[in-house]
Amino acid sequence: MAADPRSLIAERIKASRKIAVTSHLRPDGDSLCTARALSLLAGLLGKDAVITNRDPTPLPFSGFPDLAGIRVGQIQAGDYDTVVLLECADVSRSGQEGLDGAFKINIDHHHSNSPYADINWIDPEAPAVGEMVFDLAGSLGLRPTPEIAENLYCAIASDTGSFQFSNTTPRALAAATELARLGADPTRVAEKLYYNNSPEKIRLLGCVLSTLTMNAKGTIAVISMFKRDTEGLHLKEVDTEDMTTQARSIKGVEMVMFFKEMGPETFRVSLRSKGGANAARVAEHFGGGGHIHASGFTVYGPYERLIRDIPAIVEGLLDEDPGETSAPGR
Ligand SMILES: [Mn+2]
Hints:
The strands form 2 sheets. A 6-stranded parallel β-sheet has the order 3-2-1-4-5-6, with helices on one face. A 6-stranded mixed β-sheet has the order 7-8-9-10-12-11, with helices on both faces. The protein folds into 2 domains: 5-194, inorganic pyrophosphatase (n-terminal core) (Alpha-Beta Complex), CATH 3.90.1640.10; 199-320, Roll (Diaminopimelate Epimerase, Chain A, domain 1). 37% of the residues lie in helices and 19% in strands. It starts with a helix and ends in a 10-residue tail after the last helix. It has 11 helices and 12 strands. It is an alpha/beta fold. The chain is elongated. Helix 1 packs across helix 3 (129-139), helix 3 runs antiparallel to helix 4 and helix 4 packs antiparallel against helix 5. Bound molecules: manganese (II) ion (MN).
């Protein structure tokens, strides 16, 4: 039987002096807060752990004081004894170049296709990488401080959509309970994650949601955002995930189509689906791609024609492929 990757990782961390931590392109709450927790855990052992991501920290996480120290750029592998990659199915997912000679640790809760690192700990049953690093704290013989506990809790809360998605397993809830006991404050985390919007964003949300149209069956919701909607608002970046979430919350909706004007007669269409409705298959039909519940493609033409024709084609595709009925989730 192979050695437990947790003990191998713990040994390697203890034997390292300088540790680099990174996560995937367009990092999310799970990878960001877990990276922070891991660097703090390493700090408890007297290690110098530095988080470096290729992409900047997005909203709302860019406003978290705890995540302010994250560097953006490339890791100078020669400066570190160990590089930890969180949620990267391969090295290219990190956007880091020049890690070939580095000692790499791969921690992921998604199926990785290649165990590319020197130590690979892949647990597709884990609800979030934050839950795995909580487990790792035990292997390191460490009790998370309240700050570490709160980051790990935030990672799990964020990845489960506040304990709503299909990864809200007994394991996720057990870890959350334990982390709350260790000092994580669920109310404070919810404030940071969900009560952090600017007035401009809420105005834009109103604008986009007011474009809502539905097909006759009530299974497809279409919303649109035009360049003119964002121009006056001085938004540095536009987080549109909430807009699709609102449209997806309509009873009976299986697919949300979000048309975003990118240029003259050019629209990026984001698809979000639930249950068995396969967003990836629909996107592929139009030359795009993605996952079963999140995908996208680009279309060209006058808006009035696109918004009439594309949802009708999508309805046909959904009818053809009812998909397997599965639990709601992402
Ligand atoms: Mn995750």
